[in-house]
Amino acid sequence: MQSRQIVVAGAGIAGLTAAIAFARHGFSVRVFERSPALEEVGAGLQLSPNATRILDRLGVLDLVSPSTVRPEAVVLRDAATLSERARVPLGAAAERRWKAPYLVAHRADLQSALLARASESPLIEIVTDATVSGVEAQASGNRITLTQAGIVSHEQAALLVAADGVWSSSRRLVGPNEKSRFTGELAWRTTLSADGDVGRHFASLSSPAMVTTYLHAGFHLVAYPIRAGAAINLAAFTPGNSIAEQWSGETDANALKRAMRGTAPALSRLIDESGPWTVWPLHAVDPTRPWTAPSGIALIGDAAHAMTPFAAQGAAMAIEDAFTLADAVASGPNTANALSQWEMLRKPRVRKVARRGALNRLAWHAAGPVAMARNLFLKLKSPDSLAADMDWLYGWTPPGWKDDGRL
């Protein structure tokens, strides 16, 4: 039975998806979460078709869908004039093109759906206030050291899946003890009530049924509905200094307002009247570093390759990682070979996604002649052509994927 034991460090999106994916193959999974309780954290996220088709296969999509919104399009607007620069059709068009829906959601709603799905499986156990503090490779498998409420214990498992996020303490188990690096960018986030005064003001700027990105040389702002349309998620991104090695901190919006000089008065008013704002320092992890160890350790999600959110693929890459890792390990008896092959196949895709995010950031913050060239390029591209540019990303399916007719 020991060879069917999996330990997962972290009960976020990556860890819970991994637990469900491994249990689907008949593995017994214990998930250890360092927090004392699984609390509602985070903000909005986008679930593109490459993620939702996996969530559907795992039986999660039906659970999360009632709390999500299916936006009609991604729209790019000039922050100074509010004029539309480009539009990528979503909604029914996305489902026809990519065979899965494009959704926007609150992170906590997705985590709740994953928890609900995991709780249905007798093969999954979730333990809180427990930290994976070490791993010792043995002939019979990994001896994993855990610390819970000051008490040290040990688990035997064939595989440790480290899904403990950008501040991962497990990353050192597969290579040099390298920390994530600050990217020089800050993320400013807040949520509006859709039926409040500020929410109604936002609706006057752009349709709340869209994912709207406002472009400006000093910042960009992404807005979309969450909580089944009851709230609007605002996320602005500016250059800045690292505030601390922590997830977030509340701050005033003066730095954001300074970055927004020259924007349309209606957009400036939106920022003035929104809040409180929570600021996140954006950290990244070098994706070329090792993700696996032959003894039976695998990093997934932000622990392996945290990236800036400018391609809106952080959650999607974690979901892809978890699903494909479980498939790879279940496909053969040699775990070391399976991990090596999985890492080799995943890295090129993750690097390509990261490059797309860097390109988006460059384009959205362009100024002067570069901005003029960007605007001309977008003007010449039809909505269908812009959608076709995303086929490689949104139309992706895991290796060996077979359509089971769920969607």
Automatic annotation (TrEMBL):
One Pfam family hit: FAD_binding_3
Keyword vocabulary terms for this entry: FAD, Flavoprotein, Monooxygenase, Oxidoreductase
Enzyme kind, highest EC tier: oxidoreductase
Superkingdom, taxonomy of origin: Bacteria
Cofactor: FAD
Keyword RNA-binding: no
Domain FAD-binding: 5-355
Keyword set includes Flavoprotein: yes
GO molecular function: salicylate 1-monooxygenase activity
Gene3D superfamilies linked to this entry: FAD/NAD(P)-binding domain (3.50.50.60)
The protein's Enzyme Commission number: 1.14.13.1
Protein name as annotated: Salicylate hydroxylase
Species, as recorded: Aminobacter niigataensis
Lineage: Bacteria, Pseudomonadati, Pseudomonadota, Alphaproteobacteria, Hyphomicrobiales
